[in-house]
Design goal:
Two copies of one chain form a homodimer. Chain A is built from 13 helices and eleven strands. By secondary structure, chain A is an alpha/beta fold. Chain A is globular. A six-stranded mixed beta sheet of chain A has the order 3-2-1-4-11-10, sandwiched between helices. In chain A, strands 5-6-9-7-8 form a five-stranded mixed beta sheet, sandwiched between helices. Chain A folds into two domains: about 160 residues, Isopropylmalate Dehydrogenase; about 150 residues, Isopropylmalate Dehydrogenase (3-Layer(aba) Sandwich). In chain A, β1, α1 and β2 form a beta-alpha-beta unit. The interface between A and B is large, with 48 and 48 residues.
């Protein structure tokens, strides 16, 4: 908290396709609208120049200098180790030093994850953070994880995803007692590959609100609030859905040609893309499993998406998301032995 | 072949939601339009009654009595063993006895597979048949397999799927040198779970036109003619796509309400469902890996779908699909050692 008791968010001003201008603009808007303290991290001269252009009067933010930037082209782990004064690491370190309560970056996910693990560590029993969230605009009340961070899982990892997804659904979707489904090839117990069979048994013992196996169509039908799967399946699904969004919106544009107004056509095709694109549905959010609030915004975020991610960071801090998660993980680990 | 040199297809008249009427009707249409000999298998009195209702003059078909029927509610392996005189087994036996060159059934997939394996066996190196075909109406030139028959695969099984997919694309899609992609979480070699890594190396050695890893969106973009994956992932994708088709066509109906004519709206929404529904794209087709032409039509097939599946069976026989497949399997097995 700052002197006035506000939550402080450290924002990596240098990460993302539209850094620093759009990041700074989104951060300034958040400082004004969300009543949060903002610390912008990056090259001071560039940040000050962007603030000048942003033209939002009367908003004060702090700046912390970081001389280096990590790009998408670098190996995340190596880049974080070599460029010690990079903006996303410096922002994360502010959380470790309790000078900020959360960090937000639109930089490369891998690097944010490495920095998060380096400075804040992972929650008990979590080896590696998971990526997930509301999967589809069509099915906003269903969180799917893992979406690609963990490929080739052990059964207990799927239980971790379930615990994390439940905390996520409670905090961000305001679901009271989130139901959990295991993505599988059939609803009957005993279905699936060895991973699914073992994970099914563990989930039964977990004490979570486990409703059993669910199938591919159940994601779209919101059959459970939290659906867990290996990151291999999750990643294929995310990309399949993204690809469908692109091709289908083009397909629909052809079908609607000369049938409705150009404006209506564009609106509906854009909406179709939006409801199918997992990245649009998720917008951005916390890296799940890190022992601190570390939020990733999309690389192509504009000011509005940055402000949205800062709002998620604020919600996570206010709701005590990390403590809830830590306690749930400990409880479930006791249940499954 | 029958006396006049026609290919004979044994059709299980009793399998499917609309048996025997729609099955018989589709078979009679095929006898007329495709110049194939048809042997209807099932309860003679019911078949004769259905023929009477079909009102197609001048078409002669044979009937072979089978007193029992296998339903979706039964355990396939047990049902096939217990009900020895069931219609789909009797139809398959006609192929074994060379009284027919192919069999077609809209009965339960599991039971057709068991009967196929029992009477005809599997092709060399294939433990269990695979299910696959053109995955999406949006991407008709891309065959995906396995779609759920084989869950928890060994790497060599993915190579088998590739060989089978290539023969399928040659025969049914008329692609000359089908390209093969391995569904994975990234295009770089070395990506993925242990199965993907090992399968990637085998596919490199296979002598097939292997283009490397492909990702979820590449299915929609037809990046390869054949895309192989474990049946777990394939099954989740199929069902996800089916679910999307249902929910999205409803969503689109709402969006288009009062914007275009009712007829146009219904047409576009139905088309949208159609291009997303793998079962509609595939229609029906051979169980891949059985040592004989055994074709499955969808359970909810009407006469038109039955006729379509009979046409596929005819193409498979005429093109020497099974021999091509056997030779390709042997060649690739030699390549991968």
């Amino acid at each position: 908290m700052d002197n006035s008791g506000k939550i402080v968010i450290a924002v990596d001003a240098m990460g993302g396709d539209f850094a620093p201008d759009q990041i700074v603009l989104g951060a300034l808007q958040s400082a004004r609208d969300l009543k949060v303290g903002i610390t912008l991290v990056g090259k001071k001269s560039e940040i000050e120049y962007a603030i000048g252009k942003a033209n939002i009067a009367g908003i004060t933010v702090s700046i912390v200098e970081a001389s280096e930037v990590i790009t998408d082209q670098e190996q995340p782990a190596i880049a974080v180790m070599k460029k010690r004064d990079n903006s996303l690491s410096v922002a994360t370190r502010l959380v470790k030093e309790q000078k900020a309560q959360a960090m937000v970056s639109a930089g490369p996910t891998g690097a944010i994850m490495v920095a998060g693990l380096q400075f804040l560590g992972s929650l008990p029993g979590v080896e590696r953070p998971t990526v997930g969230g509301s999967f589809l605009g069509l099915a906003p009340r269903t969180v799917v994880l893992d979406l690609g961070a963990n490929v080739g899982c052990q059964p207990y990892q799927l239980v971790n995803f379930a615990v994390i997804g439940v905390a996520y659904a409670k905090t961000f979707l305001k679901v009271e007692n989130p139901s959990v489904g295991l993505l599988n090839v059939g609803v009957e117990e005993g279905k699936g590959d060895p991973l699914s069979k073992e994970a099914h048994m563990l989930l039964r013992k977990s004490g979570l609100n486990f409703i059993g196996n669910v199938e591919g169509h159940d994601i779209v039908r919101e059959k459970a609030n939290v659906i867990v799967c290996d990151g291999f399946t999750g990643n294929v699904l995310v990309k399949f859905s993204e690809g469908l969004g692109q091709i289908l919106s083009h397909w629909l544009g052809q079908k609607l040609k000369d049938k409705i107004s150009q404006a209506d056509k564009e609106k509906i095709c854009n909406d179709l893309y939006g409801v199918l694109s997992p990245s649009q549905a998720m917008g951005g959010g916390p890296l799940l499993g890190i022992n601190g609030v570390v939020c990733k915004a999309h690389g192509n975020s504009q000011a509005q998406q940055i402000a949205g991610t800062i709002q998620q960071a604020k919600m996570a801090v206010e709701s005590g998301f990390i403590n809830i998660l830590r306690e749930s993980l400990e409880k479930v680990h006791t249940n499954i032995g």
